[in-house]
Amino acid sequence: RKNEQELKDEEMELFTKYYMEWKGGKKSDNTSYANIPRFYYRLPAEDEILLQKLREESRAVFLQRKSRELLDNEELQNLWFLLDKHQTSPMIGEEAMINYENFLKVGEKAGPKCKQFFTAKIFAKLLHSDPYGRISIMQFFNYVMRKG
């Protein structure tokens, strides 16, 4: 049996070993930590002018790229025209409806920016209780306006 001092020494040795591994002094055998991407970067201080400029420029480029993905007025009008042209009868009151087959046809004709909206998942999300399995053209168009 170990006496009390030996137990304390062993405990301190283990503590130091694990502390150094966790602290980064001695690298552990587990390499999965190296695969985790860094997700937090501190904001640059006021005196780090170059880093501030880099942050501003990268933000501007990001916003430009996102704005190019948005549908402009002409593209929205074209989308509305195509949806209206491919509506599936009968109408429900004043509301025009479209089935999945025509929905996919419009998706092919609408252009590359609109392609992201013509998925089965979005159709199913907007499908409610229509007995013919259709969605409202107006609801879909409003969805595109909100998300795009």
TrEMBL record:
GO terms for biological process: B cell homeostasis; cortical cytoskeleton organization; microtubule cytoskeleton organization; positive regulation of B cell differentiation; regulation of dephosphorylation; T cell homeostasis. It is found in: Cytoplasm. It comes from the Eukaryota. GO terms for cellular component: centrosome; cytoplasm; spindle. Keywords: Cytoplasm. Its main location: cytoplasm. This is P2R3C phosphatase. It comes from Sinosuthora webbiana.
